């Protein structure tokens, strides 16, 4: 499945203390800050390195807050900054209450928040509810069936193949990053579900302890002064309820691709967009406040039909003519999962597209680097680090890898584009920078 269609259901939730009037507000006068905000997505690893290790960090972000202010940004959304083994570059969180050491410390985060407040900039964090890292304490305890953690994740005995007599995964379900969504755990002697990488076990939202724990996460960061959250990967939050014997149904072949490892090979009827997901998210409102569902048509429709004035008009009309009264439209050109806007639309169209999302009614979301028309990096198979790319092979990895849109921000025409004072960068810089540097 295209990650973009997955993302269309992601919601940006805004802190309740700042947005309590939002749900009924439709007139200009009662609009809350986020309803007309210019959001700016920071991919911390690639934004600005302050300590020369070639990896972006919190102090790097803090040093560039004035730049965001000058751009006219209202709120910066930070992709995850939490403790993580970095299999999926922090979308595999091992401690939801702590900062990844290579990004800095909680003190650095507090400094960032303080400086942002001084500049009247809001900070929004990424909330990753669907899964944790397999190195999280919760998962390690669940593996050992420690009291209170037995059902923190989706565990299953699997089934015995009547012909071979061997134990097999409970269903044919496929993960987003290619291959089976089930992994056998030797210690617990059960399979666990992972809709993303093997190292990203799915949390079990049918367990009230999990729901409460994740609300604690939200409250914790709200107390640290953040203004809201971008919620990650909501469609796979729930799976269908198993039958009376505890068995889940198989998905059927979708016909979309012949690649049997690709998630698109099967339907996702039982593993995405269950009714409980909506209820859960509305339930979170009491913790978080208002909601804004991302809309990606400026990406998806242009991909299918190409960029033209009439296609842009179609996308704008589609939303403005259908959005329920009082709701806030939002306009997104790109993100860390999608090829860079300048590479998709053409560099020459970036100023126009940037301007468009800023002047349309509602909210704009700019992915770092779009404002200077950054293009995709060319990342070889050997340099590929994104799990989606790595789970494929040298012949097809470019269809899957998200590394090209994640290359370091190009701040200057100097060494390493001014991204770091060190000698290396965690991903190679994009070729257009190298070209400019040589000129
Ligand atoms: C979302 C993120 C993506 C991540 C996935 C798993 O789709 O945008 O980067 O890999 O969730 O957390």
Task: Give your account of this protein's structure.
The protein has 15 helices and 15 strands. The protein is α/β, with parallel strands linked by helices and 439 residues long. It folds into two domains: 34-129 and 208-234 and 292-436, Glycosidases (TIM Barrel), CATH 3.20.20.80; 130-204 and 240-273, Oligo-1,6-glucosidase, domain 2 (Alpha-Beta Complex). The strands form four sheets. Strands 13-1-12-6-3-2-15-14 form an eight-stranded mixed sheet. Strands 7-11-10 form a three-stranded antiparallel sheet, with no helix packed on it. Strands 4-5 form a two-stranded antiparallel sheet. The longest helix is centred in the middle third of the chain and has 16 residues, at 208-223. It binds alpha-D-glucopyranose. The site of alpha-D-glucopyranose has 11 residues, from helix 1. Alpha-D-glucopyranose binds next to helix 1.
């Amino acid at each position: 499945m295209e990650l973009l269609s997955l993302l269309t259901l992601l919601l940006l939730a805004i802190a309740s203390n700042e947005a309590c009037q939002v749900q009924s507000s439709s007139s200009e006068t009662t609009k809350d800050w986020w309803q007309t905000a210019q959001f700016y997505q920071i991919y911390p690893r690639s934004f600005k390195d302050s300590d020369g290790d070639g990896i972006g960090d919190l102090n790097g972000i803090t040093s560039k807050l004035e730049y965001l202010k000058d751009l006219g940004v209202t709120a910066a959304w930070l992709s995850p900054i939490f403790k993580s083994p970095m299999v999926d570059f922090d979308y595999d969180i091992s401690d939801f209450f702590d900062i990844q050491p290579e990004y800095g410390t909680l003190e650095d985060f507090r400094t960032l928040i303080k400086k942002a407040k001084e500049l009247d900039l809001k900070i929004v964090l990424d909330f990753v509810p669907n899964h944790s890292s397999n190195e999280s304490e919760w998962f390690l305890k669940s593996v050992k069936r420690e009291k209170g953690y037995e059902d923190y994740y989706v565990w299953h005995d699997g089934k015995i193949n009547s012909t071979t007599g061997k134990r097999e995964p409970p269903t044919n379900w496929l993960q987003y990053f290619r291959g089976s969504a089930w992994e056998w755990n030797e210690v617990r002697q059960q399979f666990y579900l992972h809709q993303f990488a093997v190292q990203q076990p799915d949390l079990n939202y049918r367990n009230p302890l999990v729901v409460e724990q994740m609300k604690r996460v939200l409250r914790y960061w709200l107390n640290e002064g953040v203004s809201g959250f971008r919620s990650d990967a909501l469609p796979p939050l729930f799976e269908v309820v198993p039958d009376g014997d505890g068995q889940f149904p198989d998905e059927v072949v979708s016909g979309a691709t012949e690649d049997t490892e690709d998630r698109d090979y099967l339907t996702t009827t039982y593993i995405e967009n269950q009714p409980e997901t909506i209820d859960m998210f509305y339930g979170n409102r009491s913790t978080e406040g208002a909601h804004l569902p991302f809309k990606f048509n400026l990406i998806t429709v242009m991909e299918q039909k190409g960029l033209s004035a009439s296609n842009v008009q179609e996308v704008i009309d589609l939303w403005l003519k259908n959005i329920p009264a009082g709701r806030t439209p939002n306009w997104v050109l790109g993100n860390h999962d999608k090829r860079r806007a300048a590479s998709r639309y053409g560099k020459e169209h970036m100023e126009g597209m940037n301007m468009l999302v800023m002047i349309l009614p509602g909210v704009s979301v700019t992915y770092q680097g779009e404002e200077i028309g950054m293009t995709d990096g060319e990342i070889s198979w050997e340099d590929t680090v994104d799990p989606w790319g790595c789970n494929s092979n040298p012949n097809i990895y470019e269809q899957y890898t998200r590394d090209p849109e994640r290359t370091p921000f190009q701040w200057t025409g100097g060494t390493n584009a001014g991204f770091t004072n060190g000698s290396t960068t965690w991903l190679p810089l994009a070729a257009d920078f190298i070209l400019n540097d040589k000129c």
